């Protein structure tokens, strides 16, 4: 089982985490078209290699940015979204 580093709780089993979103994805304006909203919700880059993603650690309910390699699943680091723990 893989272990991810929560910036608040430290290394934990991957089953405690939930993927939330791609980091840096811009939400469309309030009165956007249905097609733009659907693209925002469902279209992902799915890049091979280095990616930045937003994850949630379910036990502490904190969100953070995880940098990882999508091909090898190796985690390069994780950073709290709300500042230092």
Describe this structure in words.
It comes from Jannaschia seohaensis. The chain starts with a strand and ends in a 5-residue tail after the last strand. The chain has a single domain (3-80), classed as Folate-binding fold (2-Layer Sandwich). The model has no long low-confidence stretch (mean pLDDT 91). Strand 5 and strand 6 (75-80) form a beta hairpin. Strands 3-4-5-6 form a four-stranded antiparallel β-sheet, with no helix packed on it. It is globular and about 40 Å long. It is built from one helix and six strands. With 85 residues, the chain is mainly beta. Helices cover 11% and strands 42% of the residues.
Provide the CATH architecture.
2-Layer Sandwich
The backbone outline, from C-alpha atoms, is globular
Treating each run of at least 4 consecutive H or I residues as one helix, how many helices?
A: 1
CATH top level is Alpha Beta
Strand content is 35-45%
Low-confidence stretches: none
Number-wise, the strands total 6
